[in-house]
């Protein structure tokens, strides 16, 4: 029987992590393994995870590093990389296993942004359309793949930003993704904090810069990361 491991990188998520992990208990009941990887939280995130995950690990700060560490610690045949501010749709477990059993090597979900602003509906449609057209997925879309494929391509590159784009590009050379129409729901907190138009333009600019070979560490600083998750 195919076993799913959910890898959840976290950093200073104490205010919400309990609810996020609570929502994943149904998947654990289905036999999924849940591995939380903390990147050095200072707000008590680790304590909030007690009893709600199969493993709670600490790794060097950085989403790519944390996800690689979680994958190495996990035991599933299929890996699902889930951001701490993203919620899976109902029947996510069955959808992933069905796609893999159908022959997919990797895949992702469509995405919905949880804010109420009408422009967010346009943005999420554009994200989903772009992903289907290009075969490239972002981490917000809950990328899943077979363990043997992840190990064969060497996992995530140890960079501070665009690790999901780089992974998708390498996976696309292996095969086209399974594009699941069910939507994960991701937080609008960055959009609401920094402004929808400003955030959208920044993301477009950073993706363009990455396409033309810009250093991911410089892009991460422009995005507002401190080299963290």
Topology-level CATH name: Spore Coat Polysaccharide Biosynthesis Protein SpsA, Chain A
Name given to the CATH architecture: Alpha-Beta Complex
Total number of distinct structural domains: 1
Per DSSP E runs of 2 or more residues, the count of β-strands stands at 8
* Helical content band: 40-55%
How would you summarize this macromolecular structure in one to three sentences?
This protein has 229 residues and is α/β, with parallel strands linked by helices. It has one domain (4-189): Spore Coat Polysaccharide Biosynthesis Protein SpsA, Chain A.
SSE arrangement:
Blueprint: E1 4-10, H1 17-23, H2 25-29, E2 33-38, H3 45-48, E3 55-58, H4 63-73, E4 78-81, E5 86-87, H5 92-101, E6 106-113, H6 118-134, E7 144-146, H7 147-153, H8 163-174, E8 178-186, H9 189-194, H10 196-211, H11 216-223
Parallel strand pairs: 1-2, 1-4, 2-3, 6-8
Antiparallel strand pairs: 4-7, 5-8, 6-7
Helix pairs in contact: 10-11
